[in-house]
What does this fold into?
Amino acid sequence: MNVRQEALRSILSRALSPKGDKAVKTKEIFGESVFHRTAMKSYLSDQAYKTLSDAMEKGRVLDSGVAGAVAGGIKAWAIDKGATHYTHWFQPLTGRTAEKHESFLAFLEGEPIEKFSGTELSQQEPDASSFPSGGLRTTFEARGYTAWDSSSPVFLLDTSFGTTLCIPTIFVSYTGQSLDYKMPLLKSISKINQAATDLCQFFDVKVSKVTPTLGLEQEYFLVDKNYYLLRPDLYQTGRTLFGAKPARGQQMSDHYFGAIPERIYAFMNELELEAHRMGIPLKTRHNEVAPGQFECAPVFESVNIAIDHGLMIMDLLDRIANKHGLVALLHEKPFAGLNGSGKHNNWSLMTDSGKNLLSPGSKPGENLMFLSFFVCVIKAVWEHSGLLKAAIVSAGNDLRLGSHEAPPAIISVFLGHQLDKVLKDIENPPRKKRNEDVDPLMHLGIASIPELLLDNTDRNRTSPFAFTGNKFEIRAVGASANSSLAMTVLNTIVAEQLIEFRSRVKSKINRGRPQDLAVLDMLKEFITESKNIRFEGDSYSKEWVELATKRSLATSSRTPDALASLIQYPSIKLFKKMGVMSEAELKSRHDVLTEKYLQQGLMEAQVMKELIMTNVLPASSEYQSALSDLALKKNELGINNNGELSLLRKLTKIGEELLFGLEEIDKSLDELLGINDKVEQARKFSNILPNQLVFCREKIDQLEVLLPDQSWPFPKYRELLLIR
Ligand code: ADP
Ligand code: MG
It folds into this structure.
């Protein structure tokens, strides 16, 4: 029996466990692991409760006078729930979350006690010097601080082996520069709140707060752990570097929304149970398009919380999958030739009275408000499409974007037929009948947008930035990404346009233009200025690439090119003006992301080389040796051995090609390592290495279908994707 057959045997013999608890009622357990209102009420004094609620609502730093009392309440609650440790939970530039656990254990007069002080809750100084900082600090002055983001409640990480109290924090350097994804996000939220609230005053003076909202869909693959562990490419790089196309891929279109297999069901149930206990409102689950691919999505929340929850979901996916003998793959393109995985970021703006600013109303005035926000978003994407792209690119996403239902790397905005027409009519009003005195709002169809939208079922899966009725959906974010950067960029660029829009309307009003008409004029100006970012057609088509080039949109699909936008003057100016990130902070992100891209690629090249030399070629040689023996024997017996000889020639040729491919990779690596400048290195890398990896992959895939199934050492695509 070979390793793959052994793996199969153990998959077949596994029991479906652990058994789901059907008696659990979601509404009863929802949020039980979060220190939220109910827990706060029973564990805090009235004053502590009030101060904390206030800090949470306004995202303010907790007053140090009350921090001790709050920490005491949190400690009592956490210990009642079985917690032994606490950690500041933060979001370094690695892209995932970080935690360094401390026990509650302390000693009083030699006796062990449980201690958790106000300072321990509010601020920490984890050494944490090994996180990428992109030059923001050097190891010899490595102090980094974490501080509680009180707008995000503390929660319990409950595993089979222990419970830890997690405190969501920002992570900053000694000099106050952000070393994480959360702090700039919080600043961008505050900026867009201010800008949107100000603009709302034209239409609704009662609005005193606007919150950006996010509904984060997460796509992922599940593979059996027994197979996963036999694929060193998968567990080292997150994706398969080779694998022949299986006969059954996604061509039958029968997986999407199909019946969820029992074993996956068990996994999903447990995932949701844990998520619900942690207050994550997971709502949707289904099979995705590729075999072995799935999706989950929570109900939308404020962007900050949605991102924390998104990261918690990624962690839960890993953890719960493991309990079920599965591995969740969050890579953007784990399997060539099939759909990749993304995070669809559904984004909108919500007022404190619960009105969605991207949802058209039923009166012309309301629609003028809707259109103002709507058009500012489009204008923002137009002005900073390069920056938005920089926020979504990665080595994994380079492989995903541009095919199999993933949007291409060119950023454009899709509105759907009806709204496209509304904007076109505002830009070039249809002619009125002579002498007809028509209200311009009625005339332009602004009064009747909701009715139009009711049957707006347009879905353009090839668009990276699509309006979907009452929100924009950014489909280009990668499955493994922390969406913070994309959301920070979006909040900031939209805030800039809201401010610009308002000030230009104001100056028109000051010059005597009635408000409605001043807004309408501005809409027209913004629509005209930004129309080149709109595209309603097929974003995969060759025509679009040509058109986009004519429109001067960035068409390169490579990460290092796209990342350059982060440190170009318009971005630096924007972030500085909006007070969201300094030039140094932008540069650090640029450097960290460039380095990450490069390291991922170098790792892939190394894994490829190693597996070819140590597994692929030896397997082929062994078969060739058996074939030559057979050919010789047949010759001795006077039997035709043309079949063996022809196969031998084929295998020899592929072997030679593979060795050639390896030499080429080595040459490129030598050349690359001679380049000092990281950006230059990454650029050069992106030009050569991906193609060289594809060359080798094609040869390996040819071998996979020539060698006896028995002697192929790696689980095949059909096994990884279809057996569970
Ligand atoms: P689809 O897969 O058709 O795009 P889903 O229902 O799976 O749609 O996901 C849509 C996501 O958009 C959900 O997370 C939903 O909560 C979210 N959403 C709905 N309204 C808003 C809004 N106003 N702001 C942000 N997200 C929203
Ligand atoms: Mg969607």
Observations:
- Residues 596-722 form a domain with the Four Helix Bundle (Hemerythrin (Met), subunit A) fold (CATH 1.20.120.1560).
- The longest strand covers residues 210-224.
- Residues 213-215, 217, 284, 297-300, 344, 346-348, 356, 470-471 surround adenosine-5'-diphosphate (ligand 1) (CB under 6 Å).
